[in-house]
């Protein structure tokens, strides 16, 4: 059944991305408080369909997400996705480089904020300093 396949894919992808590392509530829990059905639809689309695509690898997709979140200065979402990036094998030095690249388009305040979030996550995971 298609419904069961997407549910399984959503769960598997979510576990890979968010199953370890820092502990924080994913936005999904808040969405459910407002509308459980819509929260499930969002989750299945974002995690089950989009994030499970194989055109980009999971590390590539997470580096893109982190760069965009850094540029728009979305600290909480960046914290979640930095952790996910590390969970799926992103090279910590390359991830730092992604944040420095943000300077060209979003300015140094966005870089500084992203690096601050990144350092906090690394410390919480016991992976600071980057070697």
**Can you tell me the number of structural domains?**
1
Please report the number of helical segments: 8
- Give the oligomeric state of the chains in this entry, treating copies of one chain as homo and distinct chains as hetero: single chain
CATH C-level name:
Mainly Alpha
CATH topology label: AhpD-like
* Terminal Cα span: 46 Å
Please identify, by name, the CATH architecture: Up-down Bundle
Output the helix-strand order.
Answer: HHHHHHHH
Q: What is the radius of gyration computed over CA atoms, rounded to a whole number of angstroms?
A: 15 Å
* Structural category: mainly alpha
In percent terms, what proportion of residues is strand?
under 5%
CATH level-four homologous superfamily name: AhpD-like
Largest sheet: none
Structure write-up:
There is one protein chain. By secondary structure, the chain is mainly alpha-helical. It has one domain: AhpD-like. It has helices spanning 2-18, 27-34, 36-50, 58-71, 75-87, 92-101, 103-106, 108-125. Helix 6 packs antiparallel against helix 8. The relative contact order is 0.13.
Provide the descriptors you would attach to this structure in a database record.
mainly alpha, AhpD-like, globular
Helix and strand arrangement:
Blueprint: H1 2-18, H2 27-34, H3 36-50, H4 58-71, H5 75-87, H6 92-101, H7 103-106, H8 108-125
Helix pairs in contact: 1-3, 2-3, 4-5, 4-6, 5-8, 6-8
Give a quick precis of the structure.
It contains 8 helices and no strands. By secondary structure, the protein is mainly α. The protein has a single domain, classed as AhpD-like (Up-down Bundle).
